[in-house]
Backbone:
């Protein structure tokens, strides 16, 4: 794996880029500084991928020197200057004449299959290497996949208003081993956005065990649920709970509730 100063075309020659060079360079930078969450890529209908892009991703995943390059302040600074110059060139030449009359549409835009698009702000913290139970300190790929599936088809997960019985007025959602809180937060935001839940009672419970994981979870919930949330949707709430599966009790303990 080459560092940005070696891999990227020279800054002085950005104006002469070909349309084939731009996606390759951007894919490289994304893979280097904004990699996918491990395990978050779903098995879908195969979309043709260029050999260069495929090899680039494999090279990034397998190279042991990736972290060295990623933490190099000079290389990161160079990448920032390179992107800044590229953006400036695109703004100056909006007609993209220097891209051989190829429009931005030709660079390819992934089609979204989500029924809803929501934003959640999460913080991952360092793992405690001496305690395997702290694995929830970082977002798992499985959480990304499940969140995507929920947004694609809420009704598949019972998030609809098809039931008209007496219990249909209340919905309780419990997530065990919540970790950073991605799924619980997205479900909460989704139910806030669905008109059919405007007047229904909704309670989302995010449970975990490890102290540092639980503290980070509470911080993420506070960052995503504003102080005015209960005023806007007074029937919706989300809470974090301590839950130790090895000593589970059916009797609620006051010190377990946040």
Residues:
């Amino acid at each position: 794996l080459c560092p940005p100063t070696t891999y990227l075309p020279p800054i002085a020659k950005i104006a002469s880029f070909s349309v084939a060079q731009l996606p390759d360079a951007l894919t490289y930078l994304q893979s280097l500084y904004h990699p996918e969450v491990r395990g978050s890529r779903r098995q879908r209908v195969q979309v043709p991928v260029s050999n260069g892009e495929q090899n680039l991703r494999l090279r990034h995943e397998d190279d042991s020197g990736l972290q060295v390059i990623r933490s190099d302040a000079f290389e990161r600074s160079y990448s920032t200057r390179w992107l800044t110059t590229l953006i400036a060139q695109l703004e100056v030449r909006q007609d993209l004449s220097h891209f051989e009359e190829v429009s931005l549409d030709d660079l390819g835009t992934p089609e979204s299959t989500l029924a809803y698009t929501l934003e959640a702000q999460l913080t991952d913290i360092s793992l405690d290497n001496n305690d395997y139970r702290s694995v929830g300190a970082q977002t798992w790929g499985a959480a990304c996949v499940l969140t995507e599936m929920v947004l694609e088809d809420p009704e598949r997960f019972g998030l609809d208003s098809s039931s008209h019985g007496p219990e249909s007025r209340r919905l309780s959602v419990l997530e065990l081993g919540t970790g950073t809180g991605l799924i619980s937060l997205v479900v909460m935001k989704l139910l806030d956005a669905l008109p059919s839940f405007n007047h229904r009672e909704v309670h989302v419970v995010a449970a975990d065990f490890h102290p540092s994981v639980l503290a980070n979870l509470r911080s993420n919930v506070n960052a995503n649920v504003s102080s005015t949330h209960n005023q806007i949707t007074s029937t919706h709430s989300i809470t974090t709970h301590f839950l130790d599966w090895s000593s589970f009790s059916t009797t609620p303990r006051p010190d377990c509730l946040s």
